[in-house]
Amino acid sequence: MSLDDASTKPHDRLQAALSDDLASVATLIRARMASEHAPRIPEVTAHLVEAGGKRVRPMMTLAAARACGYDGPYHVHLAATVEFIHTATLLHDDVVDESEQRRGRPSANLLWDNQSSVLVGDYLFARSFQLMTETGRLDVLRVLSDAAATIAEGEVLQLTAAQDLSTSEDTYLKIVRGKTAALFSAATQVGGMIADVEPRVVQAFFDYGDALGISFQIVDDILDFGGVSAQTGKNVGDDFRERKLTLPLIKAIAAGGDKDRPFWVKTIEKGVQDEGDLETALDLLRSHGALEAARSDALMWSSKAKAALEEVPDDPLRDMLRDLADYVVERIA
Amino acid sequence: MSLDDASTKPHDRLQAALSDDLASVATLIRARMASEHAPRIPEVTAHLVEAGGKRVRPMMTLAAARACGYDGPYHVHLAATVEFIHTATLLHDDVVDESEQRRGRPSANLLWDNQSSVLVGDYLFARSFQLMTETGRLDVLRVLSDAAATIAEGEVLQLTAAQDLSTSEDTYLKIVRGKTAALFSAATQVGGMIADVEPRVVQAFFDYGDALGISFQIVDDILDFGGVSAQTGKNVGDDFRERKLTLPLIKAIAAGGDKDRPFWVKTIEKGVQDEGDLETALDLLRSHGALEAARSDALMWSSKAKAALEEVPDDPLRDMLRDLADYVVERIA
């Protein structure tokens, strides 16, 4: 790795190294999001797909397969599968969260309607299963259909855990494994599987994606409170307003004991949030070291992700995946 | 077939002949709708699954497999798969249609919320793919994932065709093939496939389910206008109020020409429906013979369904499927 490379974000280096494959994925996605009969489908899908998502998940599939020397055509199908599943969950998430923005643009449920978002999401789920079936690999189908179930389960769990002050770190981890880590781990795992690597390496790819996904989500949840330094600013406190029990909040509630409890009951359980309550919450998060503690967890998961890759064959793409695990936590450095 | 049998509804006879298999399907459904982490999932699913749906689709899978002498365990998996897909689409349909009732009970979106209906539906889709993957049959996976895509496509098409007076009978057929016939045809087709019958018989099962599904939906659409005699009464005119272009309406609009057009533009395209408009619509449907014409189409599709079964091995279960095609149109006799 040259010094020039080192100064480039690992995401950009992966994108450069996988540019041909990514072009094939883009072509396949465009072909499969088409619908002969219902033009609404490609309209909605294109709005989201072409809004410039970073395509991290499909890159993970491609990188894993290529790092293990895969030379067939199906890593492209699997990468497109993963992106379709991701896009479908975004469409449904925006309906569930009543979001008005996604990737800096008005969300599909706002531009069209909830109906279109639900049904086009279903279409993309079905398309993803068609794509993975084309690989002819039952082991891969098992991993991806399990992941789809885990994702939906995690989302339902998040829905029912919201506003529940008794949510534990264990439950948080289950939610995060569902809503974020399950697709990361499946994405890298099936990349290894299609390359027919030994079970030990398949497991390593799973562990990598799982730990990376968890680290990524914890970082996101810390940044939602303005980062470790807990500054107020644009979009700070969305999770607080939505009464989501994320890791920093769970840690602060546990550390605060009976003394802080009435505040959390009022703002999270009952949802009564007054002027100044977000600032009080941020003070509590800081004074109890909750953001610091969450940061330690994120770093630990990032290290786990890197350690898992030691089982993976030595390859520049493997090194970029390792650097990606560093990059994820750089946002809270 | 004894005279006693003849007086029993074909649905009841199928249920009796397949009672052991149906019990296995029920057990499998209960096991797979469970969720270790998110109790909301089995709650919502049970509300719908145990509300006493007729399980026509899983019975079609079981009947096709058994009629062809299948003796393995996987017809049960496929029947449960088909019921899960059906239940998932019902959950999402109720969100899309903002329904308040389903199977005579308050709908899940009303009892819980839209969020739960969307996410539990996603969970059941994923579960259905896990179940079908367990059969190890890629040909079956292809048929069912294609069906899932066709269903979603049909629903989107229905959404965009609503209120559109230029909707043709051809578009109607595409919508119906998606929202209804695709799962009927896939259900019977995979029953034959798992029994390893020759392609000619697989095709016959597809044709049977396709024609039965279309006939079934046309009958439903006729009954929504109070049947061929077009009587007013409870729940008559729901499709008119929702401005859905169903076959009777499409035929009436075409037959009415420029003379009736202002009325349809006002009530369907613009959605301005005043006191007495439903009665006027019913008069037009009757005077143009639109309900009669739709009835002829339903009978034709029912005959097609029966004719397709001539390719299927002679078996009491095959005869019950044939009688089912008669029964479907009995409602508009």
TrEMBL record, chains A, B:
Primary role: Supplies octaprenyl diphosphate, the precursor for the side chain of the isoprenoid quinones ubiquinone and menaquinone.
SUPFAM superfamilies: Terpenoid synthases
Species in which this protein is naturally found: Litoreibacter roseus
Pfam short name (any one): polyprenyl_synt
GO molecular function: all-trans-octaprenyl-diphosphate synthase activity; metal ion binding
Catalytic activity, as annotated: 5 isopentenyl diphosphate + (2E,6E)-farnesyl diphosphate = all-trans-octaprenyl diphosphate + 5 diphosphate
GO BP terms: isoprenoid biosynthetic process
Record's protein name: Octaprenyl diphosphate synthase
Signal peptide: none
EC code(s) of this entry: 2.5.1.90
Superkingdom, taxonomy of origin: Bacteria
UniProt cofactor(s): Mg(2+)
Keywords: Magnesium, Metal-binding, Transferase
Keyword hit for Transferase: yes
Family: Belongs to the FPP/GGPP synthase family.
